[in-house]
Specification:
By secondary structure, the protein is mainly beta. Helix content is 9%, strand content 37%.
């Protein structure tokens, strides 16, 4: 089970057998019945909101003749999203209200998943920048077919995608929502016994965190995602911010940076820098040409920053996810015993903007 399609302004990839890892071109579909319904799956897109106070058609698909299906995903003024999916005389309608304070510059991640065998579908909206997540569950879903997905990705006469949509992707499984990994498995992480690759760590292994603490690993989480939007890999370059080698992370992965310049400029002992903010200067660059990418991350007793490759990187912050039974069940941590999960308290570190982050990078490189 895997991702089978990606569409953005540059690519339109469709492969019913699954998009090959790291491939940036379309794969030829096998000889198969494309009208066969997908028993489960997910449609994921990332988008910005329209500056106009009017309904915004984010994604529309209309297939007539024998197919007789349509799918309309809209953003509604005031912080709402609605989806209407019809096919063969059946209809599924889902709507929810999300964070009305979302700004034009914020990126929303919208995931629509369905599971016909169990008779439910889920519409979720996330603001990854502030870890806000909203979802609603409806009954009696309508399944997409591979032909629907093909037209959604490859047939502009049948499908329209708003210019504010960063990318669209389709998976043949129910995809998780909520906190996501942001590091590569090859990242060298400091332990009491020397550096070890992040992907080699297991539950119970010890790692070193900021302040000299040694803490146990509670879980090692992994997820393969489309290499687009807020999942597009960012290469942070050595020697900026103490890195002893280049590392690859998600745009939302944050470094914890300290030192005399930080105290002088910002009046704080440490600040947080999202990796995506550094792609406007020499310290970071976005990596193109990948279809999919697999990220890994550590869950620790507290949301501590780990020492890795000469710098400090945030571990997975799940906040009070264990108190939210419905969101926990939809996350990568579904199946974990709630009383075995930690509660993470937000650290009082300011998060730098892009200009501040690149200014600090330039000053530190000149030191």
């Amino acid at each position: 089970m895997t991702w089978i399609a990606i569409r953005d302004r540059d690519d339109a990839l469709f492969a019913p057998e699954g998009l090959a890892h790291g491939r940036g071109r379309e794969l030829s579909p096998p000889e198969a019945d494309l009208d066969q319904p997908m028993p489960r799956g997910s449609l994921l897109l990332e988008t910005r909101l329209s500056p106009y106070n009017a309904p915004q058609l984010l994604l529309g698909l209309q297939r007539g003749f024998d197919a007789d299906m349509s799918l309309m995903l809209r953003a509604v003024p005031g912080g709402g999203v609605s989806l209407v999916h019809t096919g063969k005389g059946e209809m599924c309608h889902a709507a929810l209200t999300h964070d009305a304070e979302a700004r034009r510059t914020d990126v929303l991640r919208i995931t629509y998943s369905w599971d016909v065998a169990h008779g439910w579908a889920r519409l979720a909206v996330e603001r990854p920048d502030v870890a806000h997540c909203f979802q609603t569950v409806v009954r009696m879903p309508v399944a997409l077919t591979l032909a629907d997905v093909h037209d959604m990705i490859r047939n502009p006469a049948a499908a329209v995608m708003d210019e504010d949509v960063l990318f669209l992707a389709v998976s043949d499984r129910v995809e998780p929502i909520g906190p996501m990994p942001g590091l590569m498995a090859s990242l060298p992480v400091a332990t009491p016994y020397g550096a070890r690759a992040l992907g080699d760590l297991r539950r119970g292994d010890l790692v070193e965190t900021l302040g000299g603490k040694v803490v146990p690993v509670l879980q090692v989480l992994r997820r393969t995602v489309p290499a687009r939007g807020l999942f597009e890999p960012v290469r942070l370059r050595h020697p900026y911010f103490g890195l002893d080698r280049d590392i690859v992370v998600t745009p939302g992965q944050r470094m914890l940076v300290g030192g005399s310049r930080v105290e002088y400029l910002f009046g704080r002992e440490h600040v947080l820098i999202p990796a995506g903010h550094l792609t406007g200067g020499a310290a970071g660059v976005r990596e193109k040409g990948h279809a999919l990418v697999t990220y890994t991350q550590l869950l620790l007793p507290e949301a501590d920053a780990i020492y890795a490759a000469g710098t400090c990187l945030e571990s997975l912050d799940i906040g009070r996810l264990r108190r939210k039974r419905d969101l926990l069940g939809a996350s990568l941590l579904a199946g974990s015993a709630r009383n075995h999960l930690p509660e993470h308290i937000a650290r009082p570190y300011p998060v730098l903007g892009a200009f501040e982050a690149n200014t600090l990078a330039a000053l530190r490189s000149a030191a």
